[in-house]
Specification:
This protein is mainly β and about 280 residues long. It is built from 3 helices and 15 strands. A hairpin with a 5-residue loop joins strand 14 (about 245-255) and strand 15.
């Protein structure tokens, strides 16, 4: 797909959100012509819990799919507080995980594991069994049209402040929403296993830790104009291992919120504050 313009949003971001400052129009960045880039990428949301004995098998399915499709698939593992499989002595929950889970129709009695492709409803609703993930993903991959999305993320290794640059573009004017999340990979924790044992050093992959943009489905944005927005006081959560964290950005349909494009990147940590990207 040929991209006519590339539009920039720069966010100096917070996990403990303080407030938002919309930059005056005169200070906003100007769209520039760029070549086409990036293919369609999809997201698998994996709802899981440390008390769920079948969830490790679902995690293996997610890893196999990501290994098969590479950069075309982003996996985000979510531990929603509204399901008893996530409740107990250990807390891997995240408010955004619970918000999305409830929006998708999840309840305290929803069987785990379960998941979703691209925040898109399937024939039986949003939550689908892991056995259905491969087929639903193949069906989603039939739609190859997508806006352009690319993300760069930087962290101050001394203060933990994050700065994230999001580039977007489309061949025609498009209103959508931008959501930005922080995930952590390879979190060592506790997990009930299929054989009835408990693994106290289980590796949880792609765990959602925080939503960076406010609201369940992020912030409104238009790909026909450039916008610069600043969310104050951004930093990586204290409980996270900084160099295992990733930034996931999503462009969502403004009406039904299904994912139009997704992108995942690691965070580059810089020790010299003057070397951090400047707005």
């Amino acid at each position: 797909m040929v991209i006519g313009k590339r539009l920039y949003i720069i966010l100096a971001l917070a996990l403990a959100l303080g407030g938002c400052e919309v930059i005056p129009e005169a200070e906003r960045l100007v769209p520039v012509d760029t070549p086409a880039g990036g293919g369609r990428r999809h997201m698998l949301v994996e709802y899981t819990g440390f008390r769920c004995v079948n969830c490790p098998s679902a995690a293996e399915t997610a890893e196999q799919l990501q290994s098969l499709y590479g950069d075309e698939l982003i996996v985000v593992s979510m531990h929603p507080a509204s399901n008893p499989f996530t409740q107990g002595l250990y807390d891997y929950t995240c408010p955004m995980a619970d918000s999305l889970y409830l929006w998708m129709g999840g309840t305290a009695s929803t069987p785990f594991p379960t998941g979703n492709i691209d925040l898109q409803a399937a024939d039986d609703g949003y939550l689908i069994d892991p056995l259905e993930w491969p087929g639903q993903l193949l069906q989603a991959m039939q739609d190859t049209a997508a806006p352009y999305l690319e993300v760069s993320a930087y962290g101050d290794s001394l203060t933990g402040e994050l700065k994230i640059e999001v580039a977007m573009g489309a061949t025609a004017a498009m209103d959508c929403r931008l959501a930005v999340w922080l995930t952590e990979d390879s979190v060592h924790g506790v997990q009930a296993m299929p054989d009835g044992s408990v693994n106290s050093d289980y590796i949880h992959r792609h765990m959602l830790r925080a939503a960076i943009t406010p609201e369940r489905f992020g912030i409104p944005c238009s790909l026909s104009t450039s916008v610069s927005m600043q969310i104050l006081d951004g930093r990586c959560p204290d409980e996270c291992v900084a160099d295992q964290c990733h930034i996931v950005a999503l462009l969502l349909d403004k009406d039904d919120y299904h994912i139009l494009q997704a992108y995942e990147t690691t965070i580059t940590y810089i020790s010299d504050p003057l070397a951090m990207p400047q707005r």
